[in-house]
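Kindly go through one protein, given below as sequence and tokens. The question is how this chain folds according to its tokens.

***
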Amino acid sequence: MAETTPVMRKNDGQKSDAEEKEDGEHEDDGPDGGWGWCVVLGSFLCNLVLDGIAYSFGILLKPMQDDLQTSVGSISLIGGVLAGVILASGPVAAAIVNRFGNRLTCLAGSIISSCAFFVSSYCYSLVSLVLSYGLFAGFGLGLMYVPSVVAVGEYFTKRLALATGICVCGSGVGTFLIAPMTSMLSESFGWRGCNRVMAALCLACSVCGLVMVPNKRRSKVAAKDGGENKNSVSHLGLCANVPFLLVTIGNMPFVMAIYTSYTYLPALAAQNGLSPSEASFLIAVVGISNTLGRLISGWLADKSWTSPLAISISTTAAVAFFASLLPFCTQFWTFALVGSLYGLLLSALITVSTPLLVQLLGIQELNMAFGILSFARGIAGFLGPPVSGFILDNSSENLRVPFFICSGLFIVSLLIYCIVWGLSRQTYRTKKGYISI
């Protein structure tokens, strides 16, 4: 969209001394650097591991199906539970972060997920895999996920979107690295041996959790603001904030489409004539373009001439188009071209979620708001692959179907975000003494 979301800014000239002093304090509380870059690195690596594992599940779909002798829809339930629980545990993880901090929460998550993946390598039934690989591993990764996104909010103010973009780039890099690793390990040691390696990677993330030291100065200022600012949204008030609710609802079809496409892309590529190695490398291609997209969207979100909401709307419209093109690809270069554009644009909405929440609600509500948003995404992640698998098992063997479903889901998300954009414009136009930028 050419026109950006309005942002309220006072249309009076100079600020009073009290306002300038207050602004100076808020600028100082976020150093935008220093130890914050170590936190960015630790968060990046956590995202690399947890999203790399979640997005690479499609590579294990066939080996697990052959081993357990069950349907595609049943096996996809394992990946759906994993993806769903990672995100649906958001409110619990946010509450733990608020109580014990990012560092202890991430450490606990790495240990739980490591144990769960290791136990899953000895499971021989669908139910036991859903519990170990899906439920417990997903909960552990969820405890890692929330700190790896919100921890940078304590160290960055002006460059928050860029710092967040770098952190979530770990998702794309993880897909690029872990997808071919998963394929190689599965071929050499089977999916059980692959899961044991994934358990080791999760345990290694405990080191990343150690660097998430709280910014004591920022915490004091946030506590002061929470007590003094009567206009800040309360935790209970989040559920009555219409733009926030719409953003949360709009994320659900989007995330359903993400996990559905990642789950069925290797199988679609194989059905259309690509070799297993080419199909797994295709996930890596999407992953690396996804990384580039996160950097670009994070950089753009910090610019005054655009906004997180405008970026979300424009990229969602484009990604709906490319999702519908993927089923018609028949050669590796066409898959790689369309898939890389798909991954590039797919990353934007997720990347700009943190600055969008801060813009709508303020930094004080970021932890809880992100937890609620993650919960909604978790429900969507749980439903996406199994629902598409059920339709696939009961209607057609054609793997094009899930991608047409994805395109429709992206369009639904686009329409909801357009409503948020319209409400934002209407709200700010009714404010007196403010101009839009």
Remarks:
- Residues 230 and 270 are 57 Å apart (CA to CA).
- The first helix runs from residue 17 to 29.
- The chain is about 80% helix and 0% strand.
